[in-house]
């Protein structure tokens, strides 16, 4: 049995106070929980990576359920755009560290829960130490490098990893636990190319969706601690909120899996940004495009100085038309060519001119830059941080979104 608290004899489990007995009374009368199960929950140590959309319901429900120790990994601060789905944070928390906001909320939900804050980006250097200290790991991140990193760390440490992911109207959940079934790499041995899958900042996400998927993750974590029911091991649950449908895919362990197969090649954690073909994720944990690919960048301040000097620069905005409507750099000569239309409209861009590519935060414009470079364009810049950074550094009248 990999979960250490489960090995503890009933008499080694912590006792419940009269107040806790009252608080958990609806659990205590459930045959699958009962007083011993509740004491198991109290003894349990669950790690939640990311206090964002998925982490919000996970942390709140685990705290309410009486999981004694919740580790939270997050280095981000609360942003106004988070509040549409990250319900552990409130309007008054904007600008605060997510860790502080989450800890305050947990203290209010259940003062018997101890939060262990990890104010770091989880990396190959610190992941094993952090993961080993917990019984169950919950992946609440939104980028591929961290997903592979957590998978490999959990395989190496023998821990179950409760996976969840969300985009637009669709979510997925599973439990990857190499000791009992397949791991994430059995399913996806190789990451998708970095420009294939948009993140929620680019593709959008229904605010309710992480609530549903995160609650599934929380339920799985509680079941794993209690050792009851059938966990999502070897099953990928796919949820479509638009059609309100759940589907299930059977997952098989891959004997050739590099992490958990018969001849594993992953014996220690690797450089996951390089593995996924992208640069280190920016604040917010969102997948960013690489300057590992040599993407030349210009800051909004530098661009403004050059425009003011009258340098002939063409700004190409590769966002969608509705984003252009929110705010744009048209007064500076920007023109709109959405990323998806670039292949057929590339002829509209003068290859001899100097071009600055711009999007919301700099990820799509980096893809556009790589595309133009493949088509022989040379004098290219990516606007660092996109129009959001322009709003921060040059013109606050441009709305942030
Ligand atoms: Zn595997």
Give a written overview of the molecule.
The structure is a single chain. The chain is an alpha/beta fold and about 400 residues long. The chain has 17 helices and 13 strands. An eight-stranded mixed β-sheet has the order 3-2-1-4-5-6-7-8, sandwiched between helices. The chain has a five-stranded parallel β-sheet with strand order 9-13-12-10-11. Strand 10, helix 14 (about 320-325) and strand 11 (about 335) form a beta-alpha-beta unit. Helix 5 packs parallel to helix 6 and helix 5 (about 55-65) crosses helix 11. The longest helix is centred in the middle third of the chain and has 18 residues, at about 210-225. The protein binds zinc ion (ZN). Zinc ion binds next to helix 9. Zinc ion (ZN) binds next to helix 9.
Q: Tell me the structural class.
A: alpha/beta
Bound molecules: zinc ion
Radius of gyration: 23 Å
- Order of strands across the main sheet: 3-2-1-4-5-6-7-8
Individual helix count: 17
Q: Summarize the amount of helix as a percent range.
A: 25-40%
Residues in β-strands, percent? 15-25%
Overall pLDDT metric: 90
**Major pleated sheet:** 8 strands, mixed
Distance between the termini: 47 Å
Q: Which blocks of ≥5 consecutive residues have pLDDT under 50?
A: 280-292
What is the overall silhouette? elongated
| Secondary-structure element series | HHHHEHEHEHEHEEHHHEEHEHEHEHEHEH
Strands, count: 13
Layout of strands and helices, then pairs:
Elements: H1 4-7, H2 18-23, H3 25-28, H4 34-43, E1 45-49, H5 55-65, E2 69-73, H6 98-109, E3 114-118, H7 127-132, E4 136-139, H8 144-157, E5 161-167, E6 170-176, H9 184-187, H10 200-203, H11 209-226, E7 235-240, E8 245-250, H12 272-275, E9 297-298, H13 300-308, E10 313-317, H14 321-326, E11 335-336, H15 342-345, E12 354-358, H16 363-374, E13 380-383, H17 386-393
Helix pairs in contact: 5-6, 5-11
């Amino acid at each position: 049995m990999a979960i250490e608290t489960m090995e503890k004899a009933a008499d080694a489990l912590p006792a419940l106070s009269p107040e806790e007995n009252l608080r958990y009374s609806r659990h205590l009368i459930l045959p699958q929980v009962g007083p011993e199960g509740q004491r198991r929950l109290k003894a349990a140590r669950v790690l939640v990576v990311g206090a964002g959309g998925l982490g919000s319901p996970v942390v709140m429900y685990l705290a309410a359920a009486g999981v004694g120790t919740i580790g939270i990994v997050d280095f981000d601060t609360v942003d106004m755009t988070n509040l549409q789905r990250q319900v552990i944070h409130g309007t008054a928390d904007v600008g605060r560290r997510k860790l502080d906001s989450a800890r305050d909320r947990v203290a209010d939900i259940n003062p018997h829960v101890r939060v262990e804050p990890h104010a770091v980006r989880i990396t190959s250097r610190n992941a094993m130490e952090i993961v080993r200290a917990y019984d169950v790991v919950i992946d609440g991140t939104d980028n591929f490098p961290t997903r592979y990193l957590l998978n490999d760390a959990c395989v190496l440490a023998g821990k179950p990893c409760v996976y969840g992911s969300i985009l637009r109207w669709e979510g997925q959940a599973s439990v990857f636990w190499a000791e009992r079934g397949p791991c994430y790499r059995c399913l996806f041995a190789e990451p998708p190319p970095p420009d294939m899958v948009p993140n929620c900042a680019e593709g959008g996400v229904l605010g309710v969706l992480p609530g549903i998927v995160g609650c599934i993750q929380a339920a799985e974590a509680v079941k794993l601690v209690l050792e009851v029911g059938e966990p999502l091991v070897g099953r990928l649950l796919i949820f479509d909120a638009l059609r309100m449908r759940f589907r299930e895919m059977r997952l098989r362990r891959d004997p050739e899996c590099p992490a958990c197969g018969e001849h594993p090649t992953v014996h220690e954690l690797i450089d996951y940004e390089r593995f996924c073909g992208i640069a280190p994720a920016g604040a917010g944990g969102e997948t960013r495009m690489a300057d590992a690919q040599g993407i030349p960048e210009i800051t909004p301040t530098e661009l403004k100085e050059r425009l003011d000097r009258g340098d002939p620069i063409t700004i190409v905005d590769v966002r969608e038309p509705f984003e252009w409507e929110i705010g744009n750099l048209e007064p500076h000569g920007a023109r709109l060519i959405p990323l998806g239309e670039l292949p057929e409209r590339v002829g509209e861009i003068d290859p001899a001119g100097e071009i600055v590519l711009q999007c919301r935060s700099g990820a799509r414009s980096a893809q556009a830059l790589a595309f133009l470079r493949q088509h022989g364009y040379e004098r290219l810049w990516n606007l660092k941080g996109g129009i959001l950074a322009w709003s921060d550094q040059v013109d606050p009248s441009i709305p942030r979104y």
